[in-house]
Amino acid sequence: MAVLLRISAFIDTINDRIGKVVLWLILLSVLVSSGNAVIRKVFGVSSNAWLEAQSYMFSMVFLLMGGYALLYDRHVRVDLLYTRYSPRTRAILNLVGSLFFLLPTAFCIVYFSWPQLIESYHIREMSPDAGGLPRWPIKLMIPVGFALLMLQALSEAIKNAAFLAGKYQFKQDEEEEAVVA
């Protein structure tokens, strides 16, 4: 179990670091959006590439932050009943949800998005808009983002299984935040 917990900690570190870098894309997206609006109003010039770059950045944030959100328990969940359960019941629900729902779904998305990415790259797919950007870089974010989510789901499954086995203790602040949320 100790080896699995070290693997879990490594996965947590990967998603934490990627998440902290990707968070800056939000600011960059706002700056691009604002700059594009000002240039369009002041100079009457617009660029499809800048508009698409803005969309790409938003998509990257959405796709690459899934693992980070799961790591910090900031994902969407119906907390009406969940917060009333004991930590043991929550660990069982999280373990079952990770193993039987999240991991298979994320795997399918990675598996089925990969051929789309390869085809887009090989045909050098471009945006249909004049001055648009290539499509393969954003299509790459789909399997990468869901692979990060899949890794984090594995990490959470390991931690919840270890908790149920008495080999892992969740941080107190995580438990309190889950109850408050």
From TrEMBL:
The keyword Cell membrane applies. It is a multi-pass membrane protein. It holds the Pfam family DctQ. It is found in: Cell inner membrane. Its main location: membrane. InterPro entries: DctQ, TRAP_DctQ. The chain crosses the membrane at residues 21-43, 55-72, 92-114, 134-154. Residues 31-160 form the Tripartite ATP-independent periplasmic transporters DctQ component domain. Coiled coil: none annotated. Keywords: Cell inner membrane, Cell membrane, Membrane, Transmembrane, Transmembrane helix, Transport. The keyword Acyltransferase does not apply. It comes from the Bacteria. Belongs to the TRAP transporter small permease family. This is C4-dicarboxylate ABC transporter substrate-binding protein. The lineage of its organism: Bacteria, Thermotogati, Deinococcota, Deinococci, Deinococcales.
